[in-house]
Every structure is written in structure tokens, then in C-alpha cells.
Amino acid sequence: MSNFRIGDPVILFPYADGTEPDLRKAVVFRASIANCTSDMITLKLRNVQTDARAFRLGLGKKWAIEHDFIDSSDASLFRGMHAFLSAPQSRRDLLLFQREPQIDESVSLVNDYGDFNELSLHVKQAQDFFLIIGPPGTGKTSFGLVNTLMEELSNPQSQVLLLSYTNRAVDEICSKLEEKNLNYIRIGNELACDVLYRSHLLSNQVQHCLTLADLKAKIQRTHIFVSTTASLNANIALFSLKQFDLAIIDEASQILEPHLISLLSAKQDDQTPSIKKFVMIGDQKQLPAVVQQTKQESRVSQKELNDILLTDCRLSLFERLLKKYGNNPTVTFMLHRQGRMHEDIAQFPNVYFYENKLRIVGAPYCPHQDKELPSAGEGSDALSDIITSQRIAFIAVGAPKNSPSDKVNQNEADLIASLVVKIYQHEGKDAFDVNETIGIIVPYRNQIATIRNTLEKYGIPEIVNIAIDTVERFQGSQRKFIIYGFTVQKYYQLNFLTNNTYTDSHGYIIDRKLNVAMTRAEEHLILVGNPELLSRNKVFNSLIEYSRSRQCYYDFTKE
């Protein structure tokens, strides 16, 4: 059982058989996981070795592969502090709330964006920044980002920077650029980039530049650059070659201030900001930034910082700006119409997390959202009936009697694997799409491996490679069927499941992990867990009672 994933940074080093692996006593190679199966792991070295003798030191020894926790990003964070202190005064004043954002109401739209004209006009009139709140399925990338980009590009001289937190989200942005047939350069490395977009990587785009002048010309000719914030922080010299009229930052609610501050503080030789204006797109009710520090460690008590609404170091710049300007329609807009979830699936998160503000798009654009199912299954077996007659279901499963770890729940893995097989049979081999039909969300990497091993036993090649991942890695994705396995067996594990919960200004308890997990589903959502344990949490208990009231609660604890 492995908790490695493709793309993970790792270290590789030899050690003598019978001894404890100790990287302090060996030559260490840094690498990334290129592929990982049950019997083989493939690594790609960060630095190519030109002499095989580097590996002969390990002859007759075993090799250890461990997660690479060597943090190489600290330098960019310190540079960011310095950049902020020397940033243009107007930008510092803006971020410290010492001046109000500027609006130019004389500006008008060049293009027509239909139902999104109001949003697009407000974005264009904002001269400093704009915040777009994008709840699940509301098209924050497809419409919020793309429409803003297309309006900016109506000026043929405009230079645009597109940023996001994860490489998966950057892949999604690249797919939108491909649909629009737009030329762009992506900053990053090959393993972190989908194969479809690798030809756009900076390293590949400049292969034929023979001189520094050629390189500069290529960068100047390209009007769109795409990157994660981490990759751009590592290549911040780009700003010495280029000034951007607009930066659009997707997944902004997941990006901490220190990871953005160096980018927003960068300046040109004439002391003007390297990024003239920025638009942030996010949702504070979905997953926040990943932070190791506790709530107590992250609390900010200094009055001067509290005055600018910096109260918790775990909060993103997006959230801090939203606290200040959330009710200001000239710089903030919330998308309300979602085209992803069927109305029955959307009801719980809409009521409990979004104050019932979301509306479905429905037919004719999203006909699956109001499509009805048969009132009952054919009676062949319980799981098949759930799949064919329910949009949302909670399946109660008892805790396993013996488990190698609290993070492994074989009972749930067996039931989830059975569900996958039933869905595969129901959809049919020709209609089943590994990238669209099923997604499985669980909280632990160990449970991912357990479910995948269980699926392999059925001998159906099409289901082995379906997406099984944690909720953090599923944000931004969607599937026709989503299966959420809670996995937990002990009370203490509820703290991990709910560690991204907060109470909003209206008194609603917002469970961001549950919100993201439920809202990945398009047509069917199946929840699998131990109700006796989960009901000890207020939000989970509400979910279980909701499923009972909808007659979609199924007890498999005695199976």
C-alpha cells in the first residue's frame, strides 16, 4: 500500500540492507513520481545525471523513496516581503486599505456576453481590482475568467497573466484557451502539466530562440501567460521583461497572502506596478489554503493588522478583501446560476451553505438538471435500484471489525467497488467514460489504495483507472456519479473531516470539505459512511436526517 501520487516530489537514496534508511548518510537524488502502479514506480530526476556512476554507489544496496519535504519556497516568501516594502505606494495603500479602489463608470463593453454583461461591465470599470465569487458549477472559469479575458483582449495591445493555485486548475484554463484558439505560454514543468498543453510550456516555446533578443521578442509577442502562483514566484524575472495590464487569479480563496504579495508588488523601472489590475475569482465557502499551523498559532492580535482585517494568517487575500468590499457591487459580484448539479443534489448545499441563493440553469442548456428518474428501481438488487432511482443517497455501513489502520475501511471499500461495477454495468461499456462517469472521494490516501486494489479484483480494465482522490484534489472537477466514502472509524477522526468548518456572519455552519465533495456530482451523489459516528457532528447529522426525510437512506450495516 502506497500513499504516493503521480507528480509528488520525492527523494531517492541508497541504504544498506538490514539498516534504517538515513538520508544524512547517503547521496540524495531529488525526483518526481512519473508513474505509480501496484508493482512499479517510475521517477523523473529533477536534475539529469550524465554519468551512470552516480548510481553505482548504490550497487548491492536497497533504495529508499520518501516524500520530499525539503521546502524550497521560503526564499520566494522572503523576497515577497521585500517586494511589498518596496512596492509602488499606490499598490501598498490599496492592499493596506489606505485608499479606496478606483472605478471608471465611463468605460463600456466592446463585446456582448449575454447574461454576463452586468458582471463583465463591472469588472471592466474597476481600475484596481475586482472580486468574483463563484459557487460550485456557476461557471467561474468558463464565464467569469473567459469573458474577462476576452474583453481585455478586445484591446489588441493588452498583456494578460492567468494564474491559479493548482496545476489541475491551470490545465483547465489551458483547455479554455485552446477552445478559443488563443496563443499562450505556460510557465511550469512537464510532469505538472497535462500532455495536451506541454507544447506551450516556456521551455518548449523558446527552443528555437538562438539569441537573447529572440527570447525577448518571443515573450513580448505573446499576449497571454499562464502559470501557478508557485511557478511564477520561481520565475519572477518575467516581470523584468514584461508588464501586464491584467492578472486574473483563479482559485484565489486557496492562495495565502504571502504567495501573492510578491507578484502584486512587482514593479517596473518607472515604478509602476508590473500587474496594473487584478481580478480574483474564488469561493470562500469551498476549500481554503492548506496550512499546517493551528488556529491558535495563526491568530493575529496586533491592532494595526486587525484594523486592515488581517485577523488570521490562514485566510487568503481574497477573503480579506471580501470582508472589506463584499457588499460593494462596484468591486464584488456573486454568480448565482449553477449548471452542474441536478436540482435534487444541489438542494442540501444550497440551503445549508449558500442561503438558498443558487438557481439551476436547467433546460435547454443543462437539461440533466431537471430530468426525472423512475420512482422505483427494477428490484434486481438494492444497489442497482439506488443507482437507477435516486439522485442522492446515504448508505449506512458498519465499521470493520479488524482494520490495519483507522485510515483504511475495507467495508466501505467493498461497497464502493460494488457500486462502481453496478454503475459500469448500468451505463454500458460503450457509454462509460473513465474521465467523466465516476469519481470517488475519500479523506485518506491509504483508502484510495484500498479501493483501487479492491477494484482490480473485478478484472474490469475500464474501472481500474477511474478518479479516486481526496476532496482537496477534486476541487474544480466534476463527474456524472460521485461516491463520497467518509472512511472514518473513530471519533477523533471527525476533527480531520471537519477541520475546514467555520460559522459565517449569518450563523450558518459552513463545512467546506463536505460542500466541495457534494457539489462535484452532476446527476448522482452517493454517500457511504457510519451514521452512528457521523451523527455526532451537527452538519453530518443534518445530512443524515435530510436523507431520511427524502427516503434515500439505506441501511447496509447488517450486510
Give a description of the structure.
There is one protein chain. It contains 23 helices and 21 strands. The protein is of the alpha/beta class. The chain folds into three domains: 9-67, no CATH class; 87-335, P-loop containing nucleotide triphosphate hydrolases (Rossmann fold); 343-555, P-loop containing nucleotide triphosphate hydrolases (Rossmann fold, 3-Layer(aba) Sandwich). The strands form five sheets. Strands 7-8-6-9-10-5-11 form a seven-stranded parallel sheet, sandwiched between helices. The radius of gyration is 25 Å and the shape is globular. The model has no long low-confidence stretch (mean pLDDT 93).
TL;DR?
The chain is of the alpha/beta class and 559 residues long. The chain contains 23 helices and 21 strands. It has 3 domains: 9-67, no CATH class; 87-335, Rossmann fold (3-Layer(aba) Sandwich), CATH 3.40.50; 343-555, 3-Layer(aba) Sandwich (Rossmann fold), CATH 3.40.50.300.
How are strands sequenced across the largest beta sheet? 7-8-6-9-10-5-11
Q: What percent of residues are in strands? A: 15-25%
Biggest β-sheet, characterized? 7 strands, parallel
* SS class: alpha/beta
CATH topology of the largest domain: Rossmann fold
Tell me, what's the shape?
globular
What's the CATH first level of the largest domain? Alpha Beta
* Count of individual domains: 3
Q: Percentage of helical residues?
A: 25-40%
CATH superfamily of the largest domain: P-loop containing nucleotide triphosphate hydrolases
Number of helices: 23
CATH architecture of the largest domain: 3-Layer(aba) Sandwich
